[in-house]
User: Fold this.
Amino acid sequence: MDDDEAPRLRLDGRFHMTPEGHARLRNELDQLLRVERPRVVEIVSWAASNGDRSENADYQYGKRRLREIDRRAHFLARRLENAHVVDPSRQPIRDRVFFGAIVTFIDETEVERTVTIVGADEADMSAGKISLTSPIATALIKARARVGDEVAIHTPRGVETIEVVFIGYPSPTAPAQGA
Assistant:
């Protein structure tokens, strides 16, 4: 492992993930296995009963779709098996950047941006969610940045400096009824 990799980004092959991200992947897996796959199996069975499978588009498409579903389901099952679910609302040290932090920074062009550091499977730039392994998140976490810190980010365009102006974490949620 070289100096550019943060050892705390992965734990023995496990991937950090928020509870929301974990639930989203679990729901996708359940949808694939309980709804979509049985529906496609039914279509393939019907198409197979129609005779010549070599020229049957429903059969050919259905078999291809089953392979896609099985591949995605396998990927999701492995990902969930290797997930390390971290609830950012339970972060005890709230003045530094760690997984799950909501960080506002100003770049060299004086543009202010707010991002939330999430797992790789949860990243969505349009929603301001960046992967834990992105250059910005990696640099902020390795620096254990605090408000007012300037952090060097190694990007494809070269080294850029950003200034951290806000660090926040989600508020702890109330325990569920009956929990």
